[in-house]
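batch job 7 of whatever, protein = 3-ketoacyl-ACP reductase
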Amino acid sequence: MQQHTDRVAIVTGASRGIGAAIAERLATDGFTVVINYAGDAASAEKLARRIEEKGGRALTARADVADPDAVKRMFDATEAAFGGIDVLINNAGILKTVALAETSDEEFDRHFAINTKGTFNTLREAAKRMRNGGRIVNFSSTTLALNLPGYAVYNATKAAVEALTHVFAKELRGRDITVNTVAPGPIATDLFLSGKSEELVAQFAKMPPLERLGQPDDIASVVAFLVGPDAGWVNGQVLRANGGVA
Ligand code: NAP
């Protein structure tokens, strides 16, 4: 369904997991996609080639979203290559589950630097540079509604993202740009699976009434809706896509 052929989307954290599925889906829908990543260049390049083989347009952009200068350079490179930016998907994120009492200063700072400041950095750039009629999708998590032990700092970073979403949607008044957040439930990616026993993964998979783990494509579909014409009246919202877990 090629309906966005003149539109350009930056997807952060798109070398693997949910971000890679989003980049691939948006390319299928006709967007030119910028595949951002922090370290895994090989996976990002492989995805770009796959998109191009299917007739899409893609560029890879290494940038630690926590670094404002790197984010600026990514926006510069996107404008230089494609002339502008219409869509920003703030998907890059990290999770390490650990009890609050056991959380080091470094882990606390790293989570806020990537999950919260990373989102802030791209939003600030988007405010100055995104074309009118654009779409922004941030990433929170359904863990914010579950309040499970071990998620205090991660949830705090995502609560901040939701706060940014609500205010930023209003600050873009007059630009015809929507700002929404997706809050996935458990999705089978490295972020969710790493460090969990098979039993714990099975427990999570049983939690939603749909009785399965989500797949990256489940979230890519939601993002495709939010950046597409049918979601034009959805603005400043948090959409929990989680199989009904909360
Ligand atoms: P993932 O499989 O671990 O992938 C994370 C992606 O983010 C990778 O492409 C990684 O790139 C990139 N990344 C990490 N740090 C970065 C940085 N500083 N700058 C730029 N890119 C960076 O994670 P995921 O499960 O797809 O999660 C995507 C988003 O969904 C996150 O915001 C997460 O909090 C949220 N979420 C996930 C779940 C879930 O169950 N999976 C549930 C709720 C919310 P490199 O490989 O290059 O490092």
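notes: The first helix runs from residue 17 to 28.
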